[in-house]
Amino acid sequence: MLYFRKIVLLSLTAIYIILCPLLISYAFGRILRPGAASDSAGLIFLSTNPPGARIYIEGRLFSERTPAALKGMLAGTYEVEVSLKGYKPWQTTIRAFPKLASVFDKILLVPDNWKTKELAYEPFRQLVSLSESRFFILNKGSRLGDYYSFDSEDEETTPFVRAGSSLAQFEVVSLYQVAGSSRVVLQARDSREEKYFLIDQEKGYVDVKDISRFFPAKFEHILWDPELPDYLFTFKEGGLSRIDLSGYSQGENYLQGLKGYGLFGQVIYVLKDINTLLRLDYERGNQRVVFDDPILGNFLFGREDFFQVKPLDSQIIFFIGTKGRLVSNLAPNRWVEEGLRGLEFHRQTKRALFWIKDLAAIIDYRPLFLAQPTTIKSTLPDRYSFYSKGRNITQGFWAYQGAYVVLADSDKVSLFELKDQTESFPNEIVKISSGSSVHYYEPSGKLYYLVPQSNKLNCLEIVPGVSKQPLSFREYLSGKPR
């Protein structure tokens, strides 16, 4: 009898030792399939900005807070929620895989109330964003004396010219800019003459240089490479001219018979007729044919007059027509027939963001680079719309290392998460002054805008703590201390 009792006691103890951890794991949403080994379980990694959020899986609260690596997750689908006081809950469905990690390390928590900061007491008429630059432009009117440079790093406003300057009364006609450049070219006139000014904001002050001598005639298009800003290229009636500001020289008829051109990586891309795309250096040497195909050329370009050549990299090249057609050299080639309003690249991840009046979408070329060399030609990029209910989309910015997009639509700015290839919920950030642009500067995570009615310059932080980002999955794997 005593022997029997010992057997029963040992059996119950063994059952307790086995079942107790499983019951505790189950209570926290972690349980292994009966008979499954622990090394076949998956891992879910969650990292939020700001950190310290509570984690709920299938409604059960976990003991860990973000950033957290949840090990021993049974393969399957889980409803996950993270929450932090003062912020809206973040929810998604996550699938765990055996011996694999499901990684969500770019979770940007949206505050219940965005905190804004006023930067200037006086009102402005307009904000002009300079894409991918820390600078943007403000103006109070149409004269050169009404224009100001704003440096988002030190958050200081600097006038283009002094109030008593002879240039202050020139009326600004046009402003030309290039993504990634802090320089702009202004076309301005007074009662006697028309001039062109180069505005350089990188010198610690605003340098205004008269470059009118390089523009004996009007041009249709102007472009420069931010890496070689002393070379300006102007296009008119199929001809390309090169201006060397440092050498004080101008090469008219630099190239002729063109249907379009673009600059990337200190190389010129030129579209000859509709059949041939060439790349060459600034001295017109090292010429290489990118493609020479009349059938493809006719399919892409047709009879449209001019195309901007916009390389994402040396292999993926987009073309923008004068009527807003968007095409590319890689299949499926035609993305927008007309009405394109903007195109922004995230070069690190081989993606392009584009928008028309009422829709914003992503073209993702990563599948091409993940494909085997034997199948890359038959692999197509992913294209998906994440916002299809726009009213008047005017601007778009990549945010938080490409995990989010910021859109200006009519009188509001919204934040969109790109966590899957479906329609994204617009998180409204702020109302903005009608007819004005906004400026988002990714290195600081800040948005700059003019407040409705008062037209005063304000800013808010979309991505907090840029200088010290939460733990990423790569850092977790490397075991580096924070």
Walk me through the structure.
With 482 residues, the chain is mostly beta strands. It has a domain at 2-108: Immunoglobulins (Immunoglobulin-like, Sandwich), CATH 2.60.40.10. It is 9% helix and 45% strand. It contains four helices and 39 strands. The strands form nine sheets. It has an eight-stranded mixed beta sheet. Strands 3-2-5-6 form a four-stranded antiparallel beta sheet, with no helix packed on it. Strand 22 (267-272) and strand 23 form a beta hairpin. The model is unreliable at 26-37 (pLDDT under 50).
Can I get a quick summary?
The protein contains four helices and 39 strands.
CATH superfamily of one domain: Immunoglobulins
The whole-number mean of residue pLDDT values reads 89
Instruction: Look at the structure and give the CATH class of one domain.
Output: Mainly Beta
- Quote the beta fraction: over 45%
> Structural class, please?
mainly beta
The CATH topology annotation of one domain reads as Immunoglobulin-like
Label the CATH architecture of one domain.
Sandwich
* Number of contiguous helices: 4
Globally, the shape reads globular
Number of separate strands: 39
Sheet with most strands: strand arrangement? 24-23-22-21-25-26-27-28
Q: Could you estimate the helical fraction of the residues in percent?
A: under 10%
Flag low-confidence runs: 26-37
Question: Radius of gyration from the CA trace?
Answer: 28 Å
Measured distance between first and last alpha carbons: 60 Å
Properties at a glance:
eight-stranded mixed β-sheet, 9% helix, Immunoglobulin-like, mainly beta, four-stranded antiparallel β-sheet, 482 residues
